[in-house]
């Protein structure tokens, strides 16, 4: 009886985390308190353009589906966009600032570009702000795009702003200028990676790792979209597990794609170590 009670309590705790948006994969951010969701939050201080390194994320892909960028026949050898995030200087961030309905039709002109440079790297659907599920882009729009005023006011502008910054500040090319290249065997000094980007970009990045490989890299911008330093102090790392910190030597690995031979639009959930796969960042 005690075992059954403990199991039930554990399951309730897991689903409570899911509902709060705290239980997720990879680089999930802790959510704001539920009372703040959809209510007025103070204006953000700066933007973080969050970029993902497919070589690190896709190397763990075990199940394939049409919506997963890791399943393309050609491996991705460049950073892809995770999102454009309004942040606060104290290391916290606004989230889900207003009710909105994601409209894919508004993004029709951008769809090929988003598929190429802003793909989901997972098979699961994403949580949206108000107990819904949807595509990766719906999640980013609702959680982060709705908090981007007064710089960004609507859905299409959110995506075009992020893409413009991505094109203008190409991190893969920046690193290449310092001979920091995609390679499974080569490691680079973390300080060299940071210095190379700082010299080319004009501000210090945030870098998050997984087992010594770059998993995510963030460039930061003022509200007038000029480069600035990202938070590199404890304010940035306070919600980051030790396993996500970068060692002194890091790598940008490649991966072998699992090709989806019979393409389908069906979304296939991918199991994690916990048996569930929720995308919450």
From TrEMBL:
Keywords linked to the UniProt accession: Disulfide bond, Endonuclease, Hydrolase, Lyase, Nuclease, Signal
SUPFAM superfamilies cross-referenced by the UniProt entry: Ribonuclease Rh-like
Keyword Signal in record: yes
PANTHER family referenced in this protein's UniProt entry, alphabetically: RIBONUCLEASE T2 (PTHR11240:SF22)
Gene Ontology biological-process entries: RNA catabolic process
Organism: Triticum urartu
Family annotation (Gene3D superfamilies): Ribonuclease T2-like (3.90.730.10)
Family the UniProt entry places it in: Belongs to the RNase T2 family.
Location of the active site: 82, 140, 144
Pfam families xrefs: Ribonuclease_T2
Cellular component annotations (GO), alphabetically ordered: extracellular region
InterPro entries assigned to the protein according to its UniProt record, in alphabetical order: Ribonuclease_T2_eukaryotic, RNase_T2-like, RNase_T2-like_sf, RNase_T2_His_AS_1
Gene Ontology MF terms: hydrolase activity; ribonuclease T2 activity; RNA binding
Domain of life: Eukaryota
Protein name: Uncharacterized protein
Coiled-coil annotated residue ranges, if any: none
Signal peptide: 1-20
């Amino acid at each position: 009886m005690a075992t059954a009670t403990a199991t039930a309590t554990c399951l309730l705790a897991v689903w409570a985390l899911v509902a709060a948006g705290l239980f997720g994969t990879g680089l999930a951010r802790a959510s704001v308190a539920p009372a703040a969701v959809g209510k007025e939050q103070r204006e953000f201080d700066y933007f973080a353009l969050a970029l993902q390194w497919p070589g690190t994320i896709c190397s763990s892909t075990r199940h394939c589906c049409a919506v997963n960028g890791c399943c393309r026949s050609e491996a991705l050898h460049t950073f892809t966009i995770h999102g454009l995030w309004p942040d606060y200087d104290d290391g916290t961030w606004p989230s889900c600032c207003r009710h909105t309905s994601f409209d894919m039709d508004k993004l029709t002109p951008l769809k090929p570009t988003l598929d190429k440079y802003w793909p989901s790297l997972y098979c699961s659907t994403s949580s949206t702000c108000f107990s819904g599920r949807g595509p990766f882009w719906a999640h980013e729009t609702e959680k982060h795009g709705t908090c981007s005023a007064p710089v960004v006011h609507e859905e299409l502008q959110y995506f075009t702003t992020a893409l413009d910054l991505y094109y203008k500040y190409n991190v893969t090319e920046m690193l290449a200028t310092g001979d920091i290249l995609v390679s499974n065997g080569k490691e680079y000094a973390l300080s060299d990676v940071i210095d190379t980007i700082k010299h080319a970009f004009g501000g210090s990045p945030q870098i998050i790792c997984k087992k010594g490989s770059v998993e995510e890299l963030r460039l930061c911008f003022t509200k007038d979209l000029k480069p600035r330093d990202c938070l590199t102090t404890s304010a940035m790392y306070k919600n980051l597990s030790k396993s996500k910190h970068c060692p002194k030597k890091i790598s940008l690995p490649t991966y072998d794609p699992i090709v989806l031979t019979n393409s389908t639009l069906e979304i296939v959930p991918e199991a994690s170590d916990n048996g569930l796969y929720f995308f919450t960042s």
